[in-house]
Amino acid sequence: MNNSQRGKHASEQPVILESLVVPYHLVQAWEEYESAVEEAIMRPAELTLSQAFVLWILLFADTLMTATQLAIIARREPHSMVQLIDKLQERKLVRRRRSRSDRRQVVVSLTNEGKQLINDILPAWQASIRAIFQNCFSADELVTFNEMLQKARDASVSWRGSATSQVKASAEQVVALFRNEIEATDSNNENRRST
Question: Which one has a higher pLDDT value, 165 or 23?
Fold first, then answer.
């Protein structure tokens, strides 16, 4: 590799690495939040955050919902949602029944126990969200942050169609950058040894 090629890759590296850092930090922030909420709020209620989210959706839904509809809202695979509903039903927190308007559909609703449980944990859950975000952001920053997250979500959805080729190209770029860095490090180490 000649110096002009190394210089070109070196100038691209911060942009590519920075673009990888942003989603990493988003995932890391979510995982830290999820872990804290699971430990402090969900575990004592013997729920996962995903189960609580489904209970919350059902609490505020203005209509009965199918497992498929819940899966779409919760961004889960339908088979995964069915398993989650099975666990909630075992605990008698939700019930399934045939839809009155379309007997082919099975709808899911909260039981009284499910309503009670989600209403019991909801204040602490909401307080955790407020505590985290109000300590991090002003009201204006929170609005901006939310708008930025929505833009990122929308961009991700529109990007998904061409994702395979883009991901492959991006992965190849990253591999090439790391390979170049390894080569440069090896070359520097060899130069040090020879002097």
Answer: 23
